[in-house]
Design a protein that fits this description.
6% of the residues lie in helices and 37% in strands. The protein contains 1 helix and 8 strands. It has a 5-stranded antiparallel sheet with strand order 6-5-4-7-8. Strands 2-1-3 form a 3-stranded antiparallel sheet, covered by helices on one side. It starts with 12 loop residues before the first helix and ends in a 9-residue tail after the last strand.
Length: 138
């Protein structure tokens, strides 16, 4: 089983273009202020079509996670972490937590966005544990 590759629609293309540049962008509704993820044609809060893309902070908190210890194929080399991340802007995003000691993971930990190549043409957001503020003080 090969990795499934997204085929971005015109609505989604700005998101993927930003990821390729190393930026996380989210849609913001100009009518009600709601922030959306995944990309849509209408606000899922008020149904307005007045959506604009804005750069996101890339910061979030782990809402839930699982360590996948048995990959479904050689294309999904295990172990790896799949997580639900609550972005500070509001939306929840499913992604991977990368370069982490599995024993260090916990719900509620802060993460920051990074980007990983999924294929030659697709780059996706992944997350890393946010370094503790007092790591340098030790």
């Amino acid at each position: 089983m090969a990795k499934p590759l997204p085929r971005p629609t015109p609505t989604e293309q700005p998101f993927y273009d930003a990821c390729a540049r190393g930026e996380l962008i989210l849609q913001h509704c100009q009518h009600c202020g709601h922030v959306l993820f995944y990309p849509r044609t209408h606000c899922d809060a008020c149904q307005s079509e007045q959506l604009v893309w804005q750069r996101a902070s890339g910061a979030g908190v782990i809402a839930s996670y699982t360590v996948v210890r048995r990959g479904v194929s050689a294309d999904f080399e295990a172990p790896y972490v799949i997580a639900l991340v609550d972005l500070v802007e509001g939306p929840r995003m499913m992604s991977q937590i990368v370069d982490v000691d599995f024993d260090a993971l916990a719900v509620g930990l802060s993460v920051t966005v990074d980007f990983a190549s999924w294929s030659e043409d697709i780059t996706l957001p992944v997350f890393r544990l946010h370094p503790a503020l007092d790591d340098d003080a030790s």
